[in-house]
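Internal ticket #5521
Category: modeling
Description: The requester needs a full-assembly model to guide mutagenesis choices. All entity lines are attached below as received. Residue total reported by intake: 981.
Assigned to: D.W.
Attached entities:
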Amino acid sequence: MVDLVDQHVVSIQAFRAETLLQLFRLAAKFESNPDRYCRHNTPLTGKILINAFYEPSTRTRLSFDSAWHRLGGDSINITDRSTTGIAKGESLEDVAHMFNNYGDCVVLRDSNPEAVYAMSSTLRIPIINAGNGIDEHPTQAMADLYTMFKWRPSLASKEVSPKDRIRIGVIGLPSRMRTVRSLLRILSKFPQILEEVVVIHAPEMESEAPLFDPGQLEELEASGMSIRCSSDLAAEIPDLDVVYINAIAWVGDSYEVHGGGFRLTRDLPFKPEAIVLHPLARGPELSTCLDDTPHNWYFSQARGAVFVRMALLTCMVNRAERVMDVI
Amino acid sequence: MVDLVDQHVVSIQAFRAETLLQLFRLAAKFESNPDRYCRHNTPLTGKILINAFYEPSTRTRLSFDSAWHRLGGDSINITDRSTTGIAKGESLEDVAHMFNNYGDCVVLRDSNPEAVYAMSSTLRIPIINAGNGIDEHPTQAMADLYTMFKWRPSLASKEVSPKDRIRIGVIGLPSRMRTVRSLLRILSKFPQILEEVVVIHAPEMESEAPLFDPGQLEELEASGMSIRCSSDLAAEIPDLDVVYINAIAWVGDSYEVHGGGFRLTRDLPFKPEAIVLHPLARGPELSTCLDDTPHNWYFSQARGAVFVRMALLTCMVNRAERVMDVI
Amino acid sequence: MVDLVDQHVVSIQAFRAETLLQLFRLAAKFESNPDRYCRHNTPLTGKILINAFYEPSTRTRLSFDSAWHRLGGDSINITDRSTTGIAKGESLEDVAHMFNNYGDCVVLRDSNPEAVYAMSSTLRIPIINAGNGIDEHPTQAMADLYTMFKWRPSLASKEVSPKDRIRIGVIGLPSRMRTVRSLLRILSKFPQILEEVVVIHAPEMESEAPLFDPGQLEELEASGMSIRCSSDLAAEIPDLDVVYINAIAWVGDSYEVHGGGFRLTRDLPFKPEAIVLHPLARGPELSTCLDDTPHNWYFSQARGAVFVRMALLTCMVNRAERVMDVI
């Protein structure tokens, strides 16, 4: 995991499959021994995280802040762009110089998709993209895939037999939702686990906006991913092993709701062992009646996200050796 | 104090008198040895507090945050509802699921009185109601009573002789002020210390709003409390041992000012040993000319509130054993 | 440095030159051994800093928060006056009483210049003025002078030979800019290092506003400082050893831009060894083309500010003995 030391986490593209698997193993160790790192062995003691969340968020911000604190680190929070140097007209490069002096790692959520790229060239400390407009949300995708491996550990093997491969239904808009964009990209690094990916969209959207950005679909297919589109959720559901749904796309300082027609409820014809994933926060598209069913892996997904972030942050600030002997 | 482990602190109603007395003993230990827990013995190391303050507050938020940090814990803060999942339409139950993943304890202040109840059923970590609209503010009442016992330790005895019982004047509106509602409730658990409680209200308010909610007065009297109303502060003051005053009621996203006619100043005919309590922040109703008099126990009340919260938080997250041998 | 224990840092006026030099020595130790205090020796463990930033700031707030955390302390943040007791009409003295209960040190930035003075008389814990309207910004001036001594260590000697004295150009408005006011005051404590101070202002400003407040210039000259004004930057630059520039004055809840006519770029006729200082955030007045030149000491200035604050905070809360043996 030396790969990850001081590595910026801006896009999923930069990550090798092997590195991700090692990350997930470390996350799993954290998840099975949550207390061991909080009381006695705090690898991030003395390290400072700068949480720069210029776009509304509680879930992601708390997830990172909790992960960092569990490991003994301290954090500094900026949650309002109007109080920052940026309001005074300061350049992103100057903000990056400032962050270099104050912390060891930055987590940035900004509706301006370019900000994380502009800052990462000047930063001498690593930065994590916690969601930049419609572009990416790499750590969310890591949490999503981690959850799939937790559910079906055989998928993490070097060789996955054809009968173990999964069909994933993605109810969302790849061109507008950063969670979906990152998810498809991370899946493309593990084509051997996939039978097929089915992007399911509301019928009316075919005329409203393209499902994929130019080149997005081609890039995914070039990895060996078999990807198909459909607007008939009822027809697809009986064959889906994983049903991933998201309805919100964050665009600029506002958001769009897509896929308003779809609603996952317990009476849909799920495969008995199918799991449902949602990055949360959820709206009506994911009914609470599913919460008490075995299909509910979205709570596990949220829980695992903290441990994935703990693993990632530990490696990025080069403190992995402090946890290795405890694992 | 095993009672308190993982216990939600939503209303004072749930607390037994014996538990409260043990809590106050622990608070008193913290108050007499403030440094012992900060440098060497930090029982909340590795624990995370989620401060969710959706209603304006500095005093209460800082009080909890300070208490938690003094004991070695870390905290995550949410101070603006518009940045949370709630702004995205997320249910309180889902917010509770989220908090379960990120912290060990929640402190909530919300102008919506139902929020703390809605969340406490889903939360698997304990929650403290830090003020919910006009309903309750249980830890403030604990601090108020703790201060009275500090002033008159004989009141904490199993048996209080009639000559030691106190007459408490409460200048406020029981139906609208959460601090008063909780205070009267906590007093009702110790009827043996009370000669009488006199609720003092401005004359004009008799026509504006009922002093008590339906059933509120009856519930208090059923505990053995002798409670009387008056609108003549000047006539009551010479007989009051404790003068409690508050003028602000937080209602929805705004506040009302009550009892504008009353003003405590040093030239009122106080009993020589009478003490004045106020939950603060104060306005003109409590004159600064009282600050330098022996009647001023409101500063001690604010100071003690931190230690009461330290004691409560330590017990709630089951770390009392870490301080017991130091006491 | 016993001088500094519990000392309020409101104005530079209160500081003796010898105390400042000792402070800078401690800061230099922190700067040359940044890791030593973060991992093993955390002098501020158990101490709580109250960051009260009622005026927009990221740079200064993060600088203090980072300094405090690096030394093992915890902090509580107030960044919005509308959520504090002040919004409820609470007096500054009552806010100070509140702070006495919750922390060990206060850092205050308030557009109301009187607030820090009003609070410091009631506070029993030390307060640092992090910028109060147009009045002062003492720790910024400490950072500025620390940087000059870092660049030219001979200036810190007891005796400075005439050939080593420096000419400082200050491009700014002494009557309106708190950074300039504090800088000139701290320089006046070291008149032996100065050949001359040249205050450089845009020509049009001579009619708009007085450069100095009544008595300000006289106070500086009384210290032995030789101070001159000029509006011809091009003519002055070839003789300046230090070029200090600032364009923003924070007034009330807004700011003014001064000296819009001046712009420092690399093609100006600087002395070869001249250094440029700017408290940052910068605007067009300091061109990025200077960043890669040897004149750029403004990044070092920002970096050093954290260590100066670490040194100051450590001394103020009387934990200097915890670092002394490590130095």
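Resolution: model delivered.
Comment from assignee: Chain C has a mean pLDDT of 89.
Ticket closed.
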